[in-house]
Amino acid sequence: WQMGVIYFSGTALSIGGRTPLPVSVQNLTLLIVTGYVSSIAFLILLPRFVVIAERVTAAAALLSALALYLPLPPEILAGAFYFQYFCCVFMIGFEMAIIINLFSEETAVRHLSVAYGVSYIIIAALQNDVIRVPFSGFRIFMVIALILMLIFFFRLPAKTWPRYVKKADGLVRPRGLCITMYALFVAVCFLTLFGTAVAETTVHGVMVMSLASGIFGGAVFLLWKRFGISPLRSVAVLVALGTLGFVFAILALYVPVFSLVSCALMGAGITACWLNPFFGIVLTKRYPSRFITPALLLVALGTVIIHSLLLEAFRGSPQILYIAYLAISVFTAILYLVMEPVLNYSFREQFLPGTAVTKPEEPKTSLGDESDRPVVPVPPKAAELAVYAVDHLSGQEIRLAELIMQGYGNAEMAKILHITGNTVKGYRKTLYSKLQIHSRRELFELAERTAPDRDEGVR
Q: Which pLDDT tens digit goes with each residue over 385-418?
């Protein structure tokens, strides 16, 4: 619904609408920014009311969609479309918040691969390139999508929300992991914006890119469920294919036959963007702050603004623009390969030390009581690494191994373990020596051998 209304029924940013509307709709960049800012403010001030806000906003959007069936004046019809656009953007942040705060990693990946895959195939159909979708069909699509969303939101628990960290909890924020994860989020957002902008310049480009993205998403899910290949491993290949797509986009400036090939490959790269909420889950498990989701939205808004400025600055020099796209896509691929072990480990391990959880012996009496519960660590799981050690692993070494795989740096581990930075370096050297490894990636490889298969749903 969001992608259909925003990108394919009007002109937003660099995207040209393709559904013939009965009224004139102007550029909506300012409205999109307003929706993002409103969503960010709501998530900061009233995060526990996200599900209720989703219900109210979806119901209001449904009413405005039903208004399109009435013989109203053009000004009112245009107002209904503007309201739809605002609701679309306003709810993007809520969707991300629900995934980050209520879904397990596995549930999130299942949702992001299957649901988004189906959505992108529908988006491909909305292009009017192969199948002609009249306004009446588009209007039915809007109503059905909003009804399904309402059913989903009313099935979600309205008063269930995780407890956010406080200073009194004594949790340590993995600064290096946060910086790297946000950088990856920025790079993946740019990858999606760049791919869409390039596809816009090609006949049937957006359709091919969207269709390819949906197919790649389905392939990721199939490889995971049928052959046990981690979706995080598959995404590494998709990012590489997306980078190759920008190479073909540059070639297409001189040999147009490569245009659709580049769009299909960039569709693979866009599939990686679906994982953005998953990055938020990883961060929330390490340091459950109320500002994680708003910060991700603010970063996404920043990439949209920067991309718009780049388009305006280099619209007459596509070669320079495409080379910039390629450079950032290469950076995305490298950064993802660096972070893949942490992401894959988080995907396999549902609960890790340092995760914000509440004491099980304290029964939940009301939503207000939840804010008074202390955050306690979860018992470590890295003890299974001991089977590969040539000598006995101490408790501190096992704890250190777990923290390394969670993405903590030496200074942060020293603070958590209440030891000096030099002591951390000594433990790390001894740990690697006992396990006969030389790097963090090798530590992840050992952990992957010991990790049991998990098939858990929503936590």
A: 888 888 888 888 888 998 898 889 899 999 988 8
Supply the pLDDT for residue 8: 57
For the chain, give percent helix, strand, coil, nearest 5: 70, 0, 25
CA distance 72 to 64: 12
Count of CB atoms situated within 10 Å of the CB of 445 = 12
Rg (CA), the chain: 23
Helix (H, G, I), strand (E, B) or coil at 15: strand
Weakest mean pLDDT among 85-99, 102-116, 127-141, 156-170: 127-141
Helix (H, G, I), strand (E, B) or coil at 159: coil
Contacts of residues 307-314 at CB distance under 8 Å and 24 or more positions apart, as own/partner, are: 307/13, 307/14, 307/190, 307/193, 307/194, 307/197, 308/13, 308/14, 308/29, 311/14, 311/197
- Give the number of other Cβ atoms within 10 Å of residue 430's Cβ: 16
Longest dimension (CA), the chain: 80
Contact 459, 350 (CB under 8 A): yes
Long-range pairs, 162-167, Cβ under 8 A, ≥24 = 162/101, 162/102, 162/284, 162/288, 162/356, 163/288, 163/356, 163/358, 163/370, 163/371, 163/373, 163/375, 164/47, 164/288, 164/289, 164/290, 164/356, 165/287, 165/288, 165/289, 165/356, 165/375, 166/375
The Cα 273–Cα 265 span in angstroms is 14
pTM to 2 decimals?
0.81
> At 376, is the secondary structure helix, strand, or coil?
strand
Please report the pLDDT score of residue 381 as a whole number: 61
| AA identity, residue 378 | V
d(CA 437, CA 423): 19
Buried residues in 342-362 as b, exposed as e (16+ CB within 10 A): bbbbbbbbbebbbbbbbeeee
